[in-house]
Amino acid sequence: MDIFTLNIFSKGGFMIFPIILGSIAALGLTIERAIYFRRLRCNTSAFSKEILGLVENNQNTEAVTRCNTELHPLAPVFAAGINSIASGPGVMEREMEREGALQVTLLEKNLPALITIVGIEPMMGFLGTIIGLIKAFMNWEKYGTSVTVEQLASGIYQAMVTTAAGLAVAIPFYVAYNLYTARVNRLASELNYFGDALISAADKGGSIR
User: Fold this and answer.
1) Per-residue model confidence (pLDDT) at position 119
2) Which residues lie closer than 8 Å to 208 by C-beta, 6 or more apart?
């Protein structure tokens, strides 16, 4: 960090510190989710085709074994459905819905905390703005017509720097939050779609009573 940047942050007053701490926390949450979603990479079309083919051929044990080797949330949903095939389509659907809800919860982990930080950062910036303006007006009131630019500048600096810092943190992490939310929604749709496909495959294979 260069001297100019340090000088700018030093003029932000004490409110700059919680803004910086929030940015560090948001960065950590964003990286954690990025690593988590990267681990879930899977060709869902090929994987589902493989599992559905096994189920249609009544190779349910092999299908569950294959599911246990995959990290994608579709795998445990498939496994829950396959393990309850003998109980009928109604039970299959309920078991897959239950497991699907659990997987969506895991996908959404830390996203509420991230969006909370995104919402708080601009508000802390605006609070710093108000505090800075109050400081500037207090100096103006104290020195009256003899007030100098330097005596007003510290408060005005704080007002501008904290607002800019709060928005600079919130904007990129808000984009990241929306990208992750879109990913969660897409995965949830895949769970529903391929869950229905599994019931059809089990029916074709004659496994459902």
Assistant:
1) 95
2) 85, 88, 89, 92, 199, 202
